[in-house]
Predict the structure.
Amino acid sequence: MKSLYLTAILFLGISFSVLAQNISVTVGDEPSGLSGAVFPIQDGILSVSANKVSLGEDEFYSPHSWSVSPDGRKISFLMKGNVFEYQLFDSDGSAYFKKDLEFFDLQDETVKNYQFDDGRTVLRDNVANFSFYSSGGNQLYSISNSSQSSEGERESELASDDYGRTVVLFNPVINYGNTTGSRASFVSKNREINTFFRDREREISRVEVTHAGAYITVIVKPAQGSDQYTALIFDRFGNKLSEINTDEELKGVELTDKADYATLFSSGRMQVYRLENNERVGSASSRNSILHATYDPEENMIIAMGGTLNGYSISSPSVTVVHIGQREIASEEINGRLHALNAEKIRLVKEGRQQYEVENLNRTVQISTSF
């Protein structure tokens, strides 16, 4: 592996020391045996190419939509034939069921599926309607997320924790004539939507629910005439806990487990805030494009996974670590190919003191630091 030196990196206006020996990256073997991007899942191998997905002995040509559960145990497909067919498989390739969706419109390109760890699936059957299905393929209920705007809206999206305990339905773009806005709502236990964010001048670029389902983050684009991106943090009931504005084009927000710190990242900059008072703890810029970043308060370090995403492929992958207290930074290039099914699901998880692992890639990536 080759150490990379970063240029023009500042921490609260103070220059960093750039180190070459304080970071080590170990990458696991690349899965082999199939063409395309190959991903190990719980009990099998998933291969993805331009027009085909392979699972076990089954091959799915040009699926309309497909989804892998966060734990890699369940894979669901929406296939087009005479009707839409909804299929659910185990990670070893065994089928749970195949179900015809006779009332779904074959001409509707907005049909999409979202897979939870427990086998439940949500199907978006038009621009704004979501149908919830049991692990056995039975429809449980259906919810409309239409904004009722007479000027139209972009298709609604869904964000959730791994098990679907906290489900957010959001309208990323709602047309109000001279302006475009957005809104976000959570699905209550009574199977109703409760709107917790609404704006007639700003669009939503990203919504995420934390792993345990306790918190929701929303990134909002600038309103017309402004250059301020906004990161909003809510609890699972829609109560706003924090709001942070920045002139960076935000790609994501990562919270610590207790939601006491937030890491905001754009393609070239990372910022850490203490949410008790929205004080910025530290920030760093990098010429390496950032895919995901997180803050470890125990070590007082920012850890970032970098690279350029093209489809499922990550080119020029790298890892950058910033020690805020010591004002030191190190970066390491990763040799070989990496793939991600969904770049928004990349996570950096602490495994021990100054030991981390990058999750949701096709290969294991382990990071060791010695600041």
